[in-house]
Design brief:
474 residues, alpha/beta, Rossmann fold, 17 helices, 43% helix, globular
Length: 474
């Protein structure tokens, strides 16, 4: 194998010592072990098309380019986040499709491919990430790039009836089938993709991991992304005076904390969560004055109107709960609408009896794994996790709930609050073992080994798919 070439919407800051997120940790580990390139948007938006900028970091080259105003509006905010994001999270009601969105989405992927192609060597292995860049392989194939190319989807792949409602879905299907390996977070995502192919293409499902389209074989698999467990556990153990003081105050006052930390996004189920906590206080009034809920919601895609709506709803709901239940020395909900440094977030997780992680739909949800990694083995907290988070396939010892069922989540909070220490310890040991075994390094090794392992079979597969318009049933 030659170099690893990674393409994602954004690249990492390699000058930063402690990286956040499994994607960043896993990719940096892989790039440093064998050298390569990482290409993506540099985060800047300008009037004219910008050049490709290159910076060197040891054996890793970072390639970045800005987006134009039109690209940011139509490719990023438009098709990526007003069409694909809501659709892939089962929110067709929030989908805002316009022809110029998909045209620009296609054009940006074409531009990225033309920027990347001259940088490639014949034995490079290319790894494309997430919904922003699904057409990248198809665009590279048009340019004659015959390297092995893998794709990994970080968000859920929706059920067949939802994906088939996405505009230009036959073209997106064609683009996905130009990869040598298509990776998903969960088995459920793989099943959804298989079913879509069965109903909307003439592809042969040879096995759970192989799809044959004419003369071409595409490999499919699920690769649950993980975190840097050791680093997060170490961060959680570093003393933080403010967190420790608050922990001691709660202990003296016989109080406990529930915590949630999410991006401000409608897929996270934040209003449902606040309603469930309110129901908990109604059902179990003995916890009024003793249970405190900390909701951290960092800003996200503020240029999309749906996010302003959910922020206003959360502020209203949190204010209503505090207005009904608060006392002069106790407020049931603390709502923070800004980013919290990981150095403070990790000890907050450790000091919280309950991690309330209940998205309506999520590809994986690494916050759930971080909460597990942060806990004290001798007195661990308990994780309440949505069964619609990808992490639920792995973290079976969490209290799994239907986030739409407000009563069920309220009762789960009570179960967690009254759970004996021995049961909490047993659940935590099993959860921590699984999170540790399937960490960020395991994820990238498993995926890349699968992509590399398919080299011989792909060399025997000489046929490439013709353009989607020529093969509408592909």
């Amino acid at each position: 194998m030659g170099r690893l070439v990674v393409v994602s919407n954004r690249t990492a800051n390699l000058a930063k010592k402690n990286q956040a997120g499994g994607l960043t940790v896993g990719i940096i580990d892989a790039l440093r072990s064998q050298g390569g390139l990482w290409m993506g948007w540099d985060g800047n938006v300008q009037d004219a098309v910008g050049d490709l900028r290159r910076s060197e970091h040891g054996n890793i080259s970072i390639l970045t380019t800005p987006l134009t105003n039109a690209e940011h509006e139509q490719y990023y905010l438009g098709f990526s986040n007003k069409v694909l994001w809501p659709a892939f999270h089962n929110r067709l009601d929030l989908m805002d499709y316009r022809t110029e969105f998909v045209d620009r989405y296609s054009a940006v992927n074409e531009r990225f491919a033309k920027l990347l192609a001259p940088q490639l060597e014949n034995d490079d292995v290319i790894w494309i990430h997430d919904y922003h860049l699904m057409p990248m392989a198809a665009e590279l194939r048009k340019l004659g790039i015959d390297n092995r190319i893998g794709f990994f989807l970080h968000i859920p792949f929706p059920p067949v009836d939802v994906f088939s409602a996405v505009p230009r879905h036959p073209w997106l299907r064609y683009c996905l089938l130009q990869y040598d390996l298509v990776g998903f977070q969960t088995l459920n995502d793989v099943h959804n993709f298989h079913r879509y192919l069965e109903e909307h293409s003439d592809a042969d499902i040879i096995s759970p991991e192989l799809v044959r389209v004419r003369e071409r074989t595409v490999h499919i698999g699920h690769y649950p992304i993980g975190i840097d467990v050791k680093q997060f556990a170490q961060t959680s153990s570093k003393p933080d005076d403010a967190v420790e003081l608050e922990r001691m105050r709660r202990k003296v006052l016989r109080r406990f904390q529930l915590i949630s930390a999410d991006r401000l996004d409608y897929s996270k189920g934040l209003p449902h969560r606040i309603k469930a906590f309110r129901k908990f206080l109604d059902l179990y009034p003995e916890y009024q004055g003793h249970a405190e809920y900390l909701q951290i919601a960092s800003p996200s895609r503020e240029d999309v109107s749906a996010y302003g709506d959910i922020r206003a709803e959360l502020e209203q709901l949190a204010g209503a709960v505090n207005g009904k239940f608060a006392d002069f020395n106790w407020a049931p909900i603390q709502y923070i609408n800004r980013s919290i440094p990981r150095t403070k977030l990790a000890p907050l997780f450790k000091s919280s009896l309950i991690g309330l992680i209940t998205p309506l739909r999520d590809g994986m949800n690494l916050v759930a794994k971080e909460y597990v990694a942060a806990q004290d083995d001798s007195d661990p907290g308990i994780l309440i996790l949505s069964k619609f988070a990808g992490a639920a396939e792995e973290l079976r010892e969490a209290i799994l709930v239907n986030p739409y069922n407000i009563q069920e989540v309220a009762e789960a909070i009570h179960k967690a609050a009254t759970m004996p220490l021995e049961e909490r310890q047993l659940r935590h040991r099993k959860l921590l073992r699984r999170v540790t075994d399937h960490d960020a390094q395991w994820w990238q090794r498993k995926y890349l080994n699968a992509l590399l392992g398919h080299a011989e079979q792909q060399a025997q597969s000489s046929g490439r798919l013709a353009p989607a318009e020529a093969h509408p049933n592909v």
